[in-house]
Design brief:
The chain has one domain (33-323): Mitochondrial carrier domain (Mitochondrial carrier fold). The protein contains 11 helices and 2 strands. The chain has helices spanning 7-26, 38-68, 78-89, 98-101, 104-122, 129-159, 184-197, 206-234, 241-273, 278-289, 298-322, and strands at 161-162, 165-166. It has a two-stranded antiparallel ribbon with strand order 1-2. Helix 2 runs antiparallel to helix 11 (298-322), helix 6 crosses helix 7 (184-197) and helix 6 crosses helix 8. The radius of gyration is 24 Å and the shape is globular. The two termini are 42 Å apart. 34% of the residues are buried.
Length: 334
């Protein structure tokens, strides 16, 4: 029986389709800004960010206290700090300054908006995910930190308030022994910052924050896409993309945290201790504790980054899928 002339062409088309499907399974599909329903994106985004903040805040507090303390004067490490805070201050001690810190939800939304819009702009000049992520991540951090630093300064001083004493420059006044009303301690700290440093006090450590978080963000996104792409090549074709992303996220977070932790230690000390010079803070830290002082709080930072990054990556990708424009929801591409 003779084969029809177009049978070979049909077979080649079929193989091309199968090859394209396999390639599609291997590649991590990226949902871009123009694919999103913005209203859904912001509503779901705020809810997701709030859940993440609640889960990781205790380790943020522990990390900050470890970075600010002199040597090991109070805590011997992350686990020791966790036990001592729980024993002396109770579970509420892990959430000192949390209400103030929730205002960073605003900067969080500014971050993702800047990130997505910058990716869209850079895509006109480069198709490389690494380039787009590097530029977008750095730009997003610049915008976010301009909003976040004053909130961080206040919340970090509140984190330093221990039972009966303070690890920082300022101490909440509570002469009558009564529990302050909601935001009462915050008002007290804000007034003390104003009296001591004026408005500039709320932007103390701004440069150190930029030198910490712009590189952190600029490094995280390219490493995230790099790890995700490498894992996709090594994994079976039917491995879900979210699994690969959930592994790539913590790997990228650990890498970025290790690279930027020295500046994060300096940032915390500048903001809490009221130092004005990054260089002098660095010199003092090296003189007092040596190079190991630059690793303080790293384990707590990685511990907090690992679960939060999994939630962020899986949640963020899920968020974007939930926020797809209606006409794209049933598209095979996603």
């Amino acid at each position: 029986m003779r084969q029809r002339p177009d049978a070979g062409v049909q077979e080649l088309d079929r193989r091309d389709t199968i090859g394209a499907d396999m390639e599609d399974k291997r590649n991590i599909q990226i949902i871009e800004w123009e694919h999103l329903d913005k209203k859904k994106f912001y509503v779901f985004g705020v809810c997701m960010t709030m859940m993440i903040r609640v889960s990781v805040y205790p380790f943020t507090l522990i990390r900050t206290r470890l970075q600010v303390q002199k040597g090991k004067s109070l805590y011997n490490g992350t686990f020791d700090a966790f036990v001592k805070i729980l024993r002396t201050e109770g579970a509420a001690g892990f959430y000192r300054g949390f209400l103030v810190n929730t205002f960073t939800l605003i900067s969080g939304q500014c971050y993702v908006t800047t990130y997505e819009l910058t990716r869209k702009y850079v895509s006109q000049y480069s198709s490389s995910n690494t380039v787009k992520s590097l530029v977008a991540g750095g730009s997003a951090s610049l915008v976010a930190q301009s909003i976040t630093v004053p909130i961080d300064v206040v919340s970090q001083h509140l984190m330093m308030q221990r039972k009966g004493e303070s690890m920082g420059r300022f101490r909440v006044h509570n002469p009558d022994g009564k529990q302050p009303v909601v935001f009462g301690q915050t008002k007290d700290i804000i007034l003390q910052i104003c009296r001591a440093d004026g408005f500039r006090g709320f932007y103390r450590g701004y440069v150190a924050s930029l030198l910490t978080y712009i590189p952190n963000s600029a490094v995280w996104w390219p490493f995230y896409h790099f790890y995700a792409e490498q894992l996709s090549r090594l994994s079976p074709d039917d491995c879900p993309h979210l699994v690969l992303q959930a592994i790539a996220g913590p790997l990228a977070a650990a890498t970025a945290s290790t690279i930027t932790n020295p500046m994060d230690v300096i940032r915390a000390r500048v903001q809490v201790e009221g130092k004005s010079s990054i260089i002098n803070t660095f010199r003092q830290l090296m003189a007092e504790e040596g190079p190991w002082g630059l690793t303080k709080g790293l384990s707590a930072r990685i511990i907090s980054a690992t679960p939060s990054t999994i939630v962020i990556v899986v949640g963020y990708e899920t968020l974007k899928k939930l926020s797809l424009r209606p006409e794209l929801v049933d598209s095979r591409h996603w």
